[in-house]
UniProtKB/TrEMBL annotation:
This is Pyruvate dehydrogenase E1 component subunit alpha. Pfam families: E1_dh. Residues 71-367 form the Dehydrogenase E1 component domain. The keyword NAD does not apply. Keywords: Oxidoreductase, Pyruvate, Thiamine pyrophosphate. It is an enzyme of class 1 (oxidoreductase). It comes from Castanea mollissima (Chinese chestnut). Tetramer of 2 alpha and 2 beta subunits.
Amino acid sequence: MALAHVASSTSRSNLLRPISAIVSPNLRRQLSTDDTRTLTIETSVPFTSHQCESPSRSVDTTPSELLSFFRDMATMRRMEIAADSLYKAKLIRGFCHLYDGQEAVAVGMESAITKKDSIITAYRDHCTFLGRGGTLLQVFSELMGRIDGCSKGKGGSMHFYKKDSGFYGGHGIVGAQVPLGCGLAFAQKYKKDGTVTFALYGDGAANQGQLFEALNISALWDLPAILVCENNHYGMGTAEWRAAKSPAYYKRGDYVPGLKVDGMDALAVKQACKFAKEHALKNGPIILEMDTYRYHGHSMSDPGSTYRTRDEISGVRQERDPIERVRKLILSHDLATEKELKDTEKEVRKLVDDAIAQAKESPMPEPHELFTNVYAKGYGVEAFGADRKEVRAVLP
Ligand SMILES: Cc1ncc(C[n+]2csc(CCOP(=O)(O)OP(=O)(O)O)c2C)c(N)n1
Ligand SMILES: [Mg+2]
């Protein structure tokens, strides 16, 4: 495949499309021959369960799915690395938490559910948004405070939303998204629409009281709530064992079943999420503890190397990296060549660069945008008068 062809195919319309809808020519060549074949692949490690059976370690997949996992995770990785550079160049300001290392959770979860199911997460939300069908242009525009961002540039890194595909944010208050997620599950049960909510939180958040309150009511009312603890083993810099008497987060729901999953294995995540959705619709809440890792520090102000060793980080990269795992599977099943995968990575890099260039062209929001989507219609603050210096406030 000629690279030039790939480069010229990168257009604005591609940037506006969800990642999974953009299939590169080299991957398409592979898919045309064997995308209907079922491959059965064993998860890296067995699941460990609490108060429930474990799903099978044998996961059904297809060449098409593995190739899209590779491409989607490579896009996420590249996007986060680019966000790091933009932050250092001061084009992104404020808080910024990166997800590189944890990509398998986002793609595995998406492959098991539909856009009618809901997802809600904390501030480490860029890749979850992309997985829900958000575009690179929306991501970079939002990060740089531009009008083309998913929250019109007013939310920034921690406040990505995509309600039309069931993504309810993007929340900065640790743990607060979990009761909100259980509220979404309450609405789903009330409407009897057969959908579920995945509420994601970290190992640090797992010790919060509001989590147990939300879990209690969800279990009492059999709500279709799946609590996903993304255990990257650190809070802002506090190792899990320094913050939690029991870091076995999948067991922490006591009367609520739980499953421990290798969160660096996209197929294991897919299997667990499928299992959890079926369980939740039948029996109510379940906890999935995803054993994962973040390569970056907690946020951009944390170098991430004072409370853990460089050896630990490079060891995870070498042994458990989610993208490398899928690369190996693709190569061992002869679904693409090393060169084709490298070309895909180059193509992804170009998509990311193009999205950044276009996001830089996007204007800042107008001052009047300051008050939209903050108060209910008819309320809020309005500036008026010839010099716009008079302000009228109408509060509920
Ligand atoms: C209620 C509340 N307390 C403290 C903070 C500051 N804070 C932000 S992130 C964080 C650590 C959370 O760690 P974890 O839940 O493991 O998520 P991770 O960042 O590892 O994804 C803390 C203490 C906050 N945002 N909200
Ligand atoms: Mg954590």
